[in-house]
Amino acid sequence: MKNSDHQDLVYRGSFSTLQTQGNSQYMKHGAISFTEKQNELYSRLLKGLKYYSKEELYAMNSNKKNRIKKSHKKAQDLLNVWKQELMILLSNSIFEQYDLKESRTIVKEDEPNECIKLKLSDIFGDTDPNFKCTLTFKELGLNKEIIANKFVENRLLPADFISL
Questions:
Q1: Mean pLDDT for the chain overall
Q2: CB-hemisphere CA count at 13 Å for 70?
Q3: What average pLDDT does this structure show over 32-59?
């Protein structure tokens, strides 16, 4: 844990001034905790049918299973493209920081006599739905609340999700 992480943490428990218990709780400022219903809806989007036990899956009708699969697929596709967009923003900010945003001369493979000038942000600026972004939510600075809001914004979760 970095030193800067300690600034965002608050100790909660019977010993508020000393951390002496092994089961101490740390909570981030502004973190929200979801209700059971919110957790179910959110987890079902992220995990799909893996969220349910074998017994629950056996009792579930095929229409519900198909709806869950379809929603899970949409959520995963949305997250993949969104993570790529965030990755592009981060990489472009690095290009700018190290003055790599300037145009570079590129030689076309099919026309070696023709050179073109491109910005690196133009080369690395498009998302690809076939590319699987493996960066974690933590690496991109995303938390459960931000992801849930993205799902609400894209109508994968109900508009009244926060009040459920």
A1: 76
A2: 6
A3: 91
Q: What are phi and psi of 69, to 5 degrees?
A: -60, -45
Instruction: Name the one residue in this structure whose structure tokens are 């945003």.
Output: 101
* Contact by Cβ (8 Å): 101, 95: yes
Locate all alpha helices (DSSP H) within the chain, ordered by sequence: 3-7, 36-47, 54-59, 62-97, 120-123, 144-153
Domain ranges, ordered by start, for the chain: 1-31, 32-163
- The encoded tokens of residue 4 equal 């800067």
What is this structure's pTM? 0.64
**3-state SS assignment for residue 112:** coil
The CA distance from 28 to 158, in Å, is: 26
